[in-house]
Design a protein that fits this description.
The chain has two domains: about 100 residues, no CATH class; about 55 residues, no CATH class. It is about 60% helix and about 0% strand. Helix 3 crosses helix 4. It is globular.
Length: about 190
């Protein structure tokens, strides 16, 4: 979401917090920076605690207005935000002694319980290094790439924009070079 106009209201972060974290503005002293970082950490933790209140008390109508209406209308910006939300939670859970699959399973079942049902959740994660040559080979074999893999190629010095455009129908995304790869590649 870098480069996007920041005319939106405060969420977990204030406009000043977002500007600071993006590196678009500095703070006046080392102590001011420490205070800002501590304030942001506290807000992130408090926001995590607020999700329990939201799950238990946010009405179905309000959920529909947020997710069914606003998220659907925002398209790729909302898609990017949802991916980033899951990425932050995944990374955060990996830094604890909790198991992500257990948290995911319990979260899905908590959501499904409101419809009087349960779900079987299986997560299979296989790790591999991101490497331009390996990703080129996948494309040459006609395999699809994840958004992260495409973004990696886009940012890589080993793959030119022209070469990357050859793999994708550039006419479907004429502004491929605007830096918001995740938003653009959803159509590929």
């Amino acid at each position: 979401m870098a480069g996007r106009s920041d005319g939106r209201d405060r969420g977990v972060l204030s406009r000043a917090d977002r500007t600071y974290l993006r590196g678009e503005a500095g703070l006046s002293s080392v102590q001011a920076e420490r205070n800002a970082r501590a304030r942001i950490r506290n807000r992130v933790y408090d926001a995590l605690l607020d999700f329990e209140v939201l799950v238990e008390h946010l009405s179905d109508r309000d959920r529909e207005l947020v997710f069914g209406k606003r998220v659907s209308e925002e398209g790729t910006a909302a898609f990017d935000a949802l991916i980033s939300t899951v990425a932050l939670l995944y990374d955060g859970i990996e830094r604890t002694d909790l198991d992500f699959e257990t948290v995911l399973r319990e979260g899905i079942n908590l959501a499904e319980a409101s419809d009087d049902r349960a779900a079987t959740v299986e997560l299979d994660v296989t790790f591999h290094a991101l490497d331009a040559d390996h990703l080129r080979e996948k494309l040459d074999r006609g395999e699809s790439l994840s958004l992260t893999e495409i973004a990696y190629l886009y940012e890589s010095d080993e793959v030119g924009r022209d070469e990357l455009a050859e793999y994708f129908d550039a006419s479907r995304s004429p502004d491929l070079d605007d830096g918001r790869v995740q938003s653009k590649v959803t159509d590929y």
